Amino acid sequence: MPFRRPSIVVSLAAAAFALATVAAPAHALRVATWNIARYDGSQTSLEPSMRTVINGMNPDVIVLEELDSATGRDRFLNNVLNTAQPGQWSATSWVQLQSFPVEGGAIFYKTAAVTVSGLTTISTSGPRDVPTCFIQPTAYVSPAAGFQMFSVHLKAGGPGTADSTTRRLECTDIRNYLNGLAPGTNFMLGGDTNFYGDQEGGYARLIESQLNNNGRLKDPNGLSGTWHQNSSYVQWFTQSPCLSGDCPSGFTGGGLDDRFDIWFTSYGMEDGVALDYAPGGAINSSVYPWAYGNDNQHYKIAVNSAPTNSTVGQTIADALHASSDHLPVLIVLALPPKIVGDSELDLATIIVGGISAGTFQVANGAVQPASALHYSLTAPAGFVTQNGSFTRNAGALPNNHSAHVDASSPGFKSGALYVNSDDPDSSAKPVQLSCTVLRHASASLDSASVLVTTPLDFGQHVVGQFSDMPVRVFDQGWDALEAGLSVDSGTLTGDSRFSIVGGFNPTLIGGIGQTWSIHFDDTNATAQTYTATLTFATSDEPYDGGTSQASLTVNISATVTSDVAGVKGRTIPKVLAFYPPRPNPVATNVEIAFDLPHAAPASLAVFDLAGRRIATLASGTLEADHYAIAWDGRGDGGGRVAPGLYFVRFVTPGMHRTTRLVMLP
């Protein structure tokens, strides 16, 4: 049966992109800070308006200033958040930040979006402590995907006053604490700063460059100058959504003319890598951080007065007016990328010198506006891939990359290619590569060594005594790392009395040789020697790198005699000689020859491994002659011998020879 090497087919069609459908979801994270004007839970009439604001703003995390009791924390969680968006919200405990008047805070969050841990407070030179906690997006395992959040409510009071000095001292304490964070830490600070412009010492302290910049903050809106009652900065104003006279009880009026509520980010959150601040433009063309509800059209007037609010509409504008004397400030964070792609690539089998290239895919399975995926590739020894840095936006189709094997030597090649990326959960994703590189086939007429030319002598017989003779072709030395030998053609030239029994059919040879039987038609043949040449054209099996292999030549002869003795010929040898069996190994007919220069007793027999004689081929006194004796593999009992190793023994005065003979199935 023709040899067939097992093959493996690997489909790469969009495999990496399909993985995105099962990856944990990643998305933008919406984080808000809101001063809710001394809310202690007793102001139940405000809660419907607060719910309207929450549904419109739809934050994932919200931190509150002026949350003045644990009861207020509970009512905001249950009567505002989980009433507006049932079952989605949880919260940290309420923490007291100021003893008189009592003021506190809490962090509220959607449990499907984030987890919150490590809530603590930092003491400052101001009247209120600063709460801080760690926010971890649920779609990620690595803490590198999270950030430390700080909430502030700095001392109120005008610029150029003792209150401004107090703010500077508070910010000095905060900056010193932030400088103690590990380099590269992602963190944000937000809340009611009571800053009137960038000239304030507290603002400068937070954003200035120092010898230690681990804690340096950045104002994403990058505003300079005095903001207070400056119409050039109207789009960033957060106080007050109401005018004096139309505000709910206890609110500060005056319309929108101050930028008190601000989000600051660390520089690591604006570097375009992994977790990042998203500048905006995603909602109503607003720039983030966004003073939610500020449409740049309501300077020094109420947020819900004419003209109709162009960013949130009248209903939400009315709710903002009724909820607090501060607008919330919303910042959008682009969460880190999520690498998805192929985990293995089985390259096609090739032959030394061939080319085996395959394609694997890398995609960013996060959802827009998550950060872009940045990555590079490192190939294992024996493989080559593309150099350089690569980028893939969230949700975009996969990048296709090629890898190929070094085919200069044979072997089972394997190793892990690494996709080194800024996905915090998979910074070095392995792609297992494998490829088999084969040696070239080795065409031969002998199994033990390379033989490209051999004689095939039918011997000397009278008409009617010629038997078919085998020709056997091998892929010499074949093993799992050698290409199969394709025998492409077998061509006989010379005397037309010779033919291939059954004709020639191309075949692929591996570990077992292929036998063709040659027939000599002696019908009406005259006493003479007939000759022909059988040529086999060979090549490697059809893998890339395959080439033509050696042609094999069999020189065929058959001598017709008129001597009725059968095995004797007319030419008397001059030297005593014994010729090993051929072909060897053999499946059917084998020829064993010897020369007797003079008449002598001679014995030619076949023995098994136990030393038992199983076939007698010649025995007695023989005349001087060249003898070529054909054996068809049958024992003295008439049955075919089993496949295996046998010994042929020739004994005559002056010579004792034993040689091995392998009988094939």
TrEMBL record:
Domain FlgD/Vpr Ig-like: 589-648
Descriptive protein name: T9SS type A sorting domain-containing protein
Residue ranges of coiled coil: none
Keyword annotations of the record: Signal
Organism: Eiseniibacteriota bacterium
Signal sequence bounds: 1-28
InterPro entries the UniProt entry points to: Endo/exonu/phosph_ase_sf, FlgD/Vpr_Ig-like, Secre_tail
TM helices/strands, residue ranges: none
Keyword Signal appears in the UniProt entry: yes
